[in-house]
Amino acid sequence: MLVKEIMKTIPDLVCCAPTAYVMDAAKKMEDNNIGCILITENNILKGILTDRDITLSVVADGRDPRKVQVKEIMKTDIITGKPDWDIFEATKLMADKKIRRLPIQTNGKLEGFVSLADLAPVVKKELDSFLEIEAAPIGH
What we know:
Radius of gyration: 18 Å
Shape: elongated
Distance between the termini: 25 Å
Oligomer: single chain
Number of strands: 6
């Protein structure tokens, strides 16, 4: 199965601009029950902001989230995947890099997003199917 078959795509992605305030980004995250938000300009991925980034870089430092812009604390060294990757390739990259979220791009343009929560049930199903085939008696 390919990443593009399970990834969330542009209309369903929650994004904000680098110039947005952290309070607004946090509100979008709360409204959509998500732990990160993609930072984009014209569908070009500029960064990623997680609830942990907000906690450590704003709240713990006593900064006002209504006055801190997202671009001040977002991560810009983003690891990305491709829509035509096999789900196991994406899962391996995420495990190797110790990340839980993977923006999906083609030629530098944001196309989607996949998380470990999206991948886990699909990977399990694929592995279960593989194990059933491997365990089947020869000749059946």
